[in-house]
Design a protein that fits this description.
The chain is mostly helical. It is built from 12 helices and 2 strands, in the order ααααααααββαααα. α6 packs antiparallel against α7, α8 crosses α12 and α9 packs antiparallel against α12. The chain starts with a helix and ends with a helix. The relative contact order is 0.09.
Length: 280
């Protein structure tokens, strides 16, 4: 049935094929960047072998890693293994890279989810207020703050957070995941107060940029919604501004935010969280 609908709608089919081809191209370019980056960072043999090792030991490691092959052959081997799910072994831990990723993924998911939660509960009310009262001083302060959130480097803010809240005030821990609790068969540090204290600081740091973007998105959506005819009709019926705000504006503004939720979560998970985890 799905294939029939796709064939019937030629525009949709062309759109899907175009997106798929773009995804393949992006993956190919990223694989080149990753492969080239690993080779440009330095010689892995120098990191793995004792500087006092003899030449025979160095040559043995080079053969085991396949570094004696041509670069094109190394890249092809890298691609084939990546499609099989084999991302190689970590030079530092000596274990499969995929295994290490899976082991550390729960902590990354916790950080991404909690930071997204913080950003939504802060940004949505501020964005709706700024859109509903665009000429007020508070609205101008909110929008100026959102620009500031875009401008501050994430790694710098993280260091400042550690210095203030962990070192000087001692309110929150600066590193670690914290204690893990269990709820409905799910193990997570979000289920314990100790775990929440450990994740709060990095999550807040990670949420700052997303707060700024959600504020601007929500404000733009609110400004568009309040100009619609159904808002004018609701007011003409004698509904109070509170009922108009919560019954019409808020619900429709949430649709705009929900539409951008998947991309926001994926962006936090695969890009921003990397820098935060390095700092904390």
């Amino acid at each position: 049935m799905l294939w029939f609908l796709l064939l019937k709608n030629s525009k949709m089919t062309a759109f899907i094929c175009t997106r798929f081809a773009q995804s393949i191209l992006v993956l190919f370019i990223m694989s080149l960047l990753v492969f080239g980056g690993v080779n440009l960072v330095g010689d892995p043999v120098e990191m793995l072998i004792n500087p006092e090792a003899d030449q025979a030991e160095v040559e043995r490691v080079i053969r085991e890693l396949g570094l004696d092959r041509p670069v094109t052959e190394q890249y092809w081997y890298f691609l084939v293994n990546a499609f099989k799910g084999d991302l190689g072994s970590s030079f530092i831990f000596g274990e499969p890279a995929l295994k290490l990723i899976i082991q550390r993924m729960p902590a990354t998911l916790e950080l991404a989810l909690f930071s997204l939660f913080i950003s939504l509960i802060i940004a949505i009310p501020l964005g709706i207020y700024a859109g509903y009262n665009p000429d007020s001083k508070a609205s101008k302060v909110i929008m100026a703050g959102s620009i500031l959130g875009f401008s501050m480097p994430t790694f710098w803010v993280g260091i400042i957070f550690i210095m203030i809240f962990a070192v000087q005030l001692g309110w929150l821990p600066s590193t670690g995941r914290g204690e893990i609790g269990t709820f409905m068969g799910i193990n997570s540090s979000l289920f314990t107060l100790n775990g929440l204290s450990h994740v709060f600081l990095p999550a807040l740091n990670l949420a700052l940029f997303k707060i700024s973007s959600v504020i601007r998105l929500t404000r733009a959506g609110t400004r568009e919604i309040i100009l619609q005819d159904y808002i004018t009709f609701a007011r003409s019926k004698g509904l109070s501004e509170k009922k108009v705000l919560y019954g019409h504006v808020f619900r429709n503004a949430m649709l705009i935010v929900i539409a951008g939720f998947p991309s926001a979560f994926i962006g936090i998970l695969f890009s921003s969280s990397l820098f935060i985890e390095v700092i904390f």
